[in-house]
Description:
- 73% of the residues lie in helices and 6% in strands.
- It has helices at 3-22, 43-59, 73-85, 109-126, 136-163, 166-181, 186-218, 222-251, 264-279, 283-297, 299-315, 323-346, 351-360, 362-392, 394-398; strands at 32-38, 63-69, 97-101, 104-107.
- Helix 3 (73-85) crosses helix 5 (136-163), helix 5 (136-163) runs antiparallel to helix 11 and helix 6 runs antiparallel to helix 13 (351-360).
- The relative contact order is 0.14.
Amino acid sequence: MPIRDRMLRPALIALLALVAVSAASPQSDEPLELHFFWTPGCSECREVREEVVLPLVEAYPRIAYHEHNLAEPDAMERLVQFFIRYGVPEDFWSGPTVAFVGVLYYIGTDEVAEKLPLAVEKLLVEGWEVPEDWKPDDARSRLVEFFDRFGASAIAAAGLADSINPCAIAALVFMLSLLSFAGRSSRAILATGLLFAAGVYAAYFGVGVGIFRGLEALRSFDLAAQILYPLAALGTLALTVLSLRDYLRARSGAPEEMVLKLPRPLLRASHAVTRTFVKGRWYLALAFAAGMTVALLELFCTGQLYLPTLIYISSMYNLRSRALSLLGLYVFMFTLPIIVLTVAVWAGVSSTTIRDWAREHTATSKLIMTVVFAILTLALLAIAIEGAWAAFLPRSCCG
C-alpha cells in the first residue's frame, strides 16, 4: 500500500463518517453487521485490518464488527457458510481477506481496502438489506463435498503410498513371523495384529496432530511461513532423488544399498520392542503399546512422506478446515495394510510368503513413493513460488 494512500485513508474514513452521521438513515436503530475474515500470516492482510477495517469500525459506532481468524479451522467453515449465504460462486472461494456487509462481499485486500469504506458509508446513509436465511447444514454438506472433491483422494493415495514403505512392511512381517514361531494360535495372531495396528494408528495420528498444530502456529509468523514452503519443497525434491536412486538399486538387486531406510540402531530398538512383547506372557495386553512404540521408532523412515503431506494440507486453503479428517484418513490408509496382512496370516497365509512378496516388490514400492514425492515437490514448489511472488509484489499476494 503506497505511503500516500496510508496517509490519506484515515482522513477519508473520518470524512465519510462525518457525512454518514449528518445524513438521515432509514435504519437508525439497527446496527450494520460487518464480518471480516483475515489471515494473520499475510502482512498485507494485517495491514488492511489495521489501517482500513479497524479505523472504519472506530469511525462508525453503528457497525457491529465480527472478526474471524482464518488460521482457525472453525473460521474456515464459517467462511464457507457466508460464501453460501451470499451466493458467492465457488470459483471465488479464496482470498486471505474477505469482508461481508449488508448484501455485499469483498474478496482480497485490494477490494476490501478500496471498496469497503465507501460501501459502508453508502449503506449507513441509504439503508441496507441482509441476505436471506439459509440452513447451516447446507454449508457443512457443501464444505464436505468441496473437501472430498479436492483433497480426500490425494491424501488417501499418499497415506497408502506411505504404508507400502519397506520400513513399515518390514516391521509388520517381523512381528507376524515372531508370533508364528512362538506358536501363537491364529486367533491370537489376529487379535495381536489388530491391537498392534490400533497402537500404530494412535501414535501416528497423535504425532500428526502435534505437527499440524505446530505448522498452524508458524503461519502467524510471516518470515517462518515464507521460509517453510521453499525448505519443504527442497526437502521433498531431495527425497524424490534419493527415492529414485533407491528404486534403481532395488531393481538392480541391491536393496541393502538403499539410503532411505531405518537406521540400524532404530531398527534394532524396534525389533527389541517387538521381541519383548511377543515372548512375554502378557503379549496381547502389550500389543497396543508395542504398536505405538514401534510407530514412533520408525517415524524417521515413515515420516519422510508424512511431514511433506502435513505441510501440504496446512498450505491449502480448502483443506485446512478439514485437517483432522484428512489426517485420520491418511493414518487409516497407512494402517490398512497392517490390518490386511494380519487378516491374511489369520486366514492361513504364512509370514514367509508375505516376507518374500514384500522383498519382490521393494522396487515397486520405491517407485510409487518416488512418484508421490515428485508430486508433492511440484505442489510445494508452486506454493513456495506463489509466496515468493507475493513477497516481491505484496498487493498480488492478497488481492
